[in-house]
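Second attempt. The first submission of Bax inhibitor 1 like protein had a stray character pasted in from the spreadsheet, which I only caught after the job came back as garbage. Lesson logged: always re-copy from the clean sequence file. Corrected sequence (266 aa) follows.
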Amino acid sequence: MRSTSNPAFRNLPTQQGGYATFDRSGGGMMGGASAYAGSQSSHVDPSQAAQETGRPITVDDIVQRTAISGGLALVAGFLTMWSGLIVLALPAFVVGIVVALIVIFKQKPSAPLTLTYSGAMGVALGGISSMYPGVALQAVIGTAGVFFGMLVVYKTGAVRVTPRFTKWMMGALIGVVVLMLANLVMSFFVGGGLGLRDGSPLAILFSLVVIGVAAFSLLLDFDAADNAVKAGVPEKYSWYIAFGLMTTLVWLYIEIFRLLSYFQGD
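This time the job returned cleanly.
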């Protein structure tokens, strides 16, 4: 079982069983016979999943849960921008991070927590987006475009999620995080830090790299979800998968918004 860069998917139990899959040689995503999947968790006993009651997860479950979560985030973000309650952005972001940690370490799917995370991050991103109202819509369209584009890439097998690909992605992710932290630390001592977030040509290049890493991380998420459906995990884990996809989408939106804001000026 391949690993994934998304910690949420590491808590998906798996078991052997033949249920609906997202087979690249078979039906399409919206055909009802195909589905997303998830990766095996080293913290959850696969036999535990076999004992859980409930029907196996399907593509419709994941599409619906992800659509509800994403829709809630969009509505919360729009209402925050429309009301001008930008002051709620920071506390909402803190709530979102705390809820995310709870979901990851609780190791159990939870619709209320997934929706709370989506709503809180929607408010947070709505507050951030208020700084550049014209950029927000472009960032939303860009995020949706990347999401569906990478879904097509995964579905067609244009880029295959192999163990080697996963290792490269893990390395890229670690490298990006290290550079972000280094830039943050340096910003306390030198104005602008390493120049990775100041709107300079270097910052633009760095943002493009980060967007690329976030986009290809979606392939790992799709593959992790694919494996969960093939394993026949219970339907309730669709909320776990929706949460995992939302964390990647939030990151992707932030990076796209940041890049577009560089071209807006002060």
